[in-house]
């Protein structure tokens, strides 16, 4: 799939339309085959016991698919999540960023489906796997 925005353009656009999460997520790599993103983990992402919370992991998976969709369709901030299934497999490492690798399984005119694998930085083991569906706004 051809990219409508490169990594820097996409990061700048996400910062523009979602300034409230600026600095929380970083795009490490973006290619026509997929994306690698990270959640820059800090105390706000932790739950009792010092592990990354489920909502924080969901947030990374969601932003990952959103970024992949926008990288293909361009500046359409109103693409929205319509479905998410996430499997939490193991406790993320304490004190490590979460790394998401994602790929689009389908990009249609109305819906996009993406798959995301989450790992603690430095570990090959999956901590979660998610599949998300996004609704693409109609062309104007």
Automatic annotation (TrEMBL):
Key words, A-Z: Hydrolase
This protein's record includes keyword Chaperone: no
Domain Thioesterase: 49-123
Alphabetical list of InterPro entries matching this protein: HotDog_dom_sf (IPR029069), PAAI_dom (IPR003736), Thioestr_dom (IPR006683)
Keyword Aminoacyl-tRNA synthetase: no
NCBIfam families: unchar_dom_1 (TIGR00369)
Official protein name in the record: PaaI family thioesterase
Source organism per UniProt: Arenibacterium halophilum
């Amino acid at each position: 799939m051809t990219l409508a925005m490169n990594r820097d353009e996409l990061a700048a656009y996400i910062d523009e339309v979602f300034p409230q999460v600026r600095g929380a997520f970083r795009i490490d790599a973006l290619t026509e085959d997929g994306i690698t993103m990270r959640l820059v983990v800090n105390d706000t992402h932790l739950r009792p016991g010092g592990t990354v919370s489920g909502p924080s992991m969901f947030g990374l998976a969601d932003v990952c698919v959103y970024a992949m969709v926008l990288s293909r369709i361009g500046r359409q901030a109103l693409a929205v999540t319509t479905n998410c299934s996430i499997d939490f497999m193991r406790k993320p490492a304490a004190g490590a960023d979460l790394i998401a690798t994602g790929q689009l399984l389908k990009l249609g005119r109305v819906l996009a489906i993406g798959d995301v694998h989450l790992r603690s930085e430095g570990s090959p083991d999956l901590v979660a796997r998610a599949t998300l569906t996004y609704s693409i706004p109609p062309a104007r």
